[in-house]
User: Fold this.
Amino acid sequence: MSVLVNKDSKIIVQGFTGSEGTFHAGQMIEYGTNVVGGVTPGKGGQTHLDKPVFNTVKEAVDELGADTSIIFVPPAFAADAIMEAAEAGIKVIITITEGIPVADMIKVYEYIKDHNCRLVGPNCPGVITPEEAKVGIMPGFVFKKGRVGIVSKSGTLTYEAADQVVRQGHGITTAIGIGGDPIIGTTTKEAVELLINDPETECVVMIGEIGGQLEADAAFWYQNSGSKKPIVGFIAGETAPAGRTMGHAGAIVGGSDDTAQAKKRIMKECGIHVVDSPAEIGKKVSEVLA
Assistant:
């Protein structure tokens, strides 16, 4: 059992022949990920990184049975790329692109509701099920197979948490980087729910940040779920000034419940083990799994 991606996922790369797509697809293939081909309009019929290139996602789905896509398409065209993947029948769409206009993402959000697919991102590091599939831009060597799931808005904090958990001897089932934009596909709650329901995951690390209600929604869901699986939580941005965007477009304190302090309070009230520093994540995981 694994969440979202595994060794059997048939993965295509949209924006395959561009510099970002080429570099990261190469890294994914080197990791052992089952990349079956890629899509670059106008370059169909060519071969790139020893994999076939198609003009459309539908062609890749029809010929290769692709079920997962990772998107390295520039911001102006990325929304169309997501919708094309959904229309073609791709089940898991992982969007790395940063800077997609919010108006475009509103269209995407409405469009994919009518399609049987799951969008992760945009502006995210991707998803990794260690030693099976790395569908994203994360440094694969940090992740070792294990029993702790990670959900994070932050790319770098995903890697930091994974490194600590691995050093503590527990390893990772699946790490999901949900992205830091105001409008994303898979929410913190949905990602936490996937991991809580995964029989191999014994503990979840949930990394959030200031702005929005995603962490509170996840905490309330967890409280109501009655799950006995422990969650270790951290919220980044405690010292950020109100009203100023911090790094991620979605990381802006708009109301009293958007602050790090308010989110931490809600998470604690819902039974989540909250740490005050990212440096404490690994130790806290060991404590709750003891």
Summary: The mean pLDDT is 96. The chain has two domains: 11-120, 138-289. DSSP finds nine helices and 14 strands in the chain.
